[in-house]
Design brief:
The complex is a heterodimer of chains A (405) and B (185). By secondary structure, chain A is mainly α. Chain A has 17 helices and no strands. Chain A has one domain. Classes of the chains: A mainly alpha (405), B alpha+beta (185).
Chain lengths: 405, 185
């Protein structure tokens, strides 16, 4: 294709950076204010109702964690496949993964709430329950804490290493750095797969320690990917509206992200149904309990809303090419899917607290405000300290002239 | 035999074939032919030229609708066949589940929807392109062999309402054609 490639538009280097007085430079400040308000209000409101506080806190923390992990996964795959199209939008994912050390801070207080979250963390519960006694070698507090530290150390390490090399390439333009990142990305993806799988077992599946599902890690991963592609769509569109990278991130890049969003909506449904299908067919009580709980009381409409709202509606909405190429339509679909992804996490966590049915609480909102504020602050901080695109990436010019065929 | 022979203009003259030196020249010539109001014509290049569909003023393809229709038909057939077999034709009690246990039918429904959608995309593309075409009048031009190597061409068919042998050839030369020839049917 190089023979007839259109030359990249001649752009001033300043186009690729956040201007000093741009409103987005205030994101760290605004985000921090939201974080302090939200998390402070949560603690003030929730210390009298700790089970609700820690369950709400967990949903909100997992929501921002899933976006950060999705960003990390996207960056790793782009290096592993030597992708040419994504240079213009890769920094969105790199900024999202750069929030991981900050998101880790949200999980530190949760370790204090383990008693309210995890039934298996009580010695007397384990003593009177042969199943929990059987699982004690894995499900015990010291090992759980050690694993959590290991997960976050792995993720933060990967995010920092890939972020640092990409920034170093901004300055030097060395092609060798791309090759180093490509070589490291495949083993990094294996580490990512193992840590995300076990993290979802620990922080979500063990909320109900009798229940198990071997596909659960993939289910959580699918949600992460829906989340990050919805987030990347929104940021790509918002950047354009805010006058950033207007000639750099084009309708072609947004279309491509929209295609990935569409693909992972289908992937999520495939995994979600696979999990439901085998449990429904096998019909063994220790497995069906999970769905029996979520199909009773007011959890039933929530489950139906998830099936319809997380798959049927967005699948047909995002199917036409014209929708993915329209900023307004793609933004609406992405916003909808972010909300559905949040509902998905709420649906995974909350039935363990409110067995009878859905019981929305003010703490659900304040913790989300706080965690979301922290994520935005960290995202804004990262986008201020580096260019808005990987300037030294040798494939950037390919990305600038990218077209979806 | 519409599937084996392309639909051709009546008479013994297929139309004009113009050669252009570069993809960019082809691109701009297509814009010119489009703006002149021609409807029965085509562009030929050895590789996809980005944006050529817009330069030619092509309508969006109907292929997605064919694919969607066949995907939905495949899914309906999958669910319908299993539902009919399990409730009417041969109802069996399987581990006490209802006869119409739709979750059990989803994998086959999904597979047949995928099969229908894929078959619709591939064979719909064949049908819309009048493929397989084993012979075409353009193959009579020696020069046209380069369309699969390094040649860039526009062919305008003689049954286009705007077609006029000498005026159209003049238009093509004006758009930068290095060679214009008449192709027989």
């Amino acid at each position: 294709m190089a023979e007839h490639a259109i030359a990249p538009p001649a752009l001033h280097p300043d186009v690729f950076r956040l201007p000093a007085a741009h409103p987005w430079t205030r994101l760290p400040l605004i985000g921090s204010a939201l974080a302090v308000t939200g998390l402070g209000a949560s603690l003030a409101l929730g210390l009298g109702n700790r089970p609700q506080l820690w369950h709400s806190w967990l949903v909100a923390s997992l929501f921002v964690l899933s976006l950060a992990l999705g960003g990390l996964f996207f960056v790793l795959t782009q290096h592993a496949t030597s992708a040419g199209w994504s240079g213009a939008v890769r920094r969105i994912a790199e900024n999202a993964m750069a929030t991981l050390p900050f998101v880790a801070l949200l999980f530190a207080p949760l370790l204090l709430g383990m008693g309210e979250l995890f039934h298996w963390s009580h010695a007397d519960a384990v003593a009177s329950d042969p199943l929990l006694a059987h699982k004690r070698a894995y499900l015990n507090v010291p090992f759980f804490v050690a694993r959590t530290v290991l997960y976050f150390a792995s993720w933060c390490g990967l995010a920092l290493w890939f972020g640092r090399l990409s920034r170093r390439q901004d300055r030097s333009g060395e092609h060798e750095l791309s090759r180093r990142m490509r070589r490291a990305s495949a083993p990094a993806l294996i580490l990512f797969a193992i840590t995300v799988t076990f993290a979802s077992f620990d922080w979500l599946m063990s909320l109900n320690p009798h229940w198990y599902s071997t596909i659960f890690g993939v289910y959580f991963f699918a949600g992460c990917l829906v989340g990050i592609f919805a987030f990347m769509s929104l940021v790509a569109i918002a950047q354009g509206r805010a006058g950033l990278l207007v000639e750099v991130v084009t309708v072609e890049h947004r279309h491509q992200i929209g295609q990935l969003l569409f693909a992972f909506v289908a992937f999520w449904a495939y995994i979600a149904f696979s999990q439901y299908f085998l449990i429904w067919y096998g019909n063994i009580p220790e497995e069906t309990g999970f769905f029996a709980e979520r199909l009773s009381g007011s959890w039933r409409p929530a489950s139906v809303a998830l099936a319809v709202g997380h798959f049927v509606v967005p699948f047909f909405f995002l199917l036409p090419r014209a929708v993915k190429r329209s900023s307004a339509a793609l933004a609406a679909g992405a916003l909808w899917l972010l909300a559905m992804h949040l509902l998905d996490l709420y649906w995974l966590v909350m039935p363990n607290l409110h067995h009878g049915g859905m019981a929305p609480h003010l703490l659900d909102f304040t913790t989300l405000l706080g965690a979301g504020g922290l994520f935005l602050a960290a995202y804004g901080w990262s986008s201020r300290r580096q260019a808005l695109v990987p300037l030294g990436d040798p494939r950037l010019s390919e990305s600038l002239t990218f077209e979806v065929i | 035999m519409a599937l084996l022979r392309p639909s051709l203009p009546p008479g013994d003259r297929f139309g004009l074939l113009a050669e252009f030196p570069t993809p960019a020249a082809l691109y701009h010539a297509c814009e010119g032919v489009r703006d002149a109001g021609f409807t029965r014509w085509d562009a030929h290049a050895p590789f996809p030229v980005h944006g050529l569909d817009r330069a030619m003023g092509l309508r969006p393809t109907r292929l997605p609708w064919i694919s969607l229709a066949l995907a939905l038909a495949g899914g309906a057939a999958g669910m319908g066949l299993q539902g009919w077999v399990s409730t009417i034709a041969y109802p069996l009690n399987i581990s006490g589940k209802p006869f119409f246990s739709w979750p059990a039918f989803v994998p086959i429904t999904f597979e047949l929807a995928v099969l229908g959608g894929a078959a619709g995309a591939v064979f719909g593309m064949f049908a819309l392109n009048q493929l397989p075409t084993l012979w075409h009048p353009l193959f009579g031009s020696q020069r046209f062999e380069r369309a699969s190597d390094d040649g860039f061409f526009i062919s305008i068919e003689s049954w286009d309402p705007k077609f006029d042998a000498s005026a159209t050839a003049e238009l093509l030369r004006g758009l930068g054609a290095t060679n214009v020839e008449t192709v027989a049917c």
